[in-house]
């Protein structure tokens, strides 16, 4: 059994309604839905960082590319409480 399988099975056992995984050290942006068949929603090979704001109502992730400071946020994704999946904001 792979690592992702162990993690997602653990979510099911604990009845986690909206699991979110934040990881780093890959030097790329990625956003994906992690249900039974993961699908990438956002991919960028540019270096940068993500700023996450977490409240009881939602988690908002803003992806930044410091090489393009004037452009600001490269992409924003939201995970709303009680509604599985990523919403592009």
TrEMBL record:
Entry superkingdom: Bacteria
Q: Gene3D superfamilies attached here?
A: PhoD-like phosphatase
Q: Which InterPro entries does this one have?
A: PhoD-like_sf
* Official protein name in the record: PhoD-like phosphatase metallophosphatase domain-containing protein
Source organism of this protein record: Allokutzneria oryzae
């Amino acid at each position: 059994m792979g690592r992702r399988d162990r993690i997602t099975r653990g979510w099911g056992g604990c009845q986690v309604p909206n699991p979110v995984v934040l990881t780093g050290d890959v030097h790329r942006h990625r956003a994906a839905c992690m249900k039974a068949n993961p699908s990438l929603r956002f991919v960028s090979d540019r270096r940068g960082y993500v700023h996450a704001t977490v409240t009881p109502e939602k988690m908002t992730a803003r992806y930044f590319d410091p090489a393009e400071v004037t452009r600001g946020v490269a992409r924003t994704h939201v995970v709303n409480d009680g509604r599985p999946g990523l919403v592009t904001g």
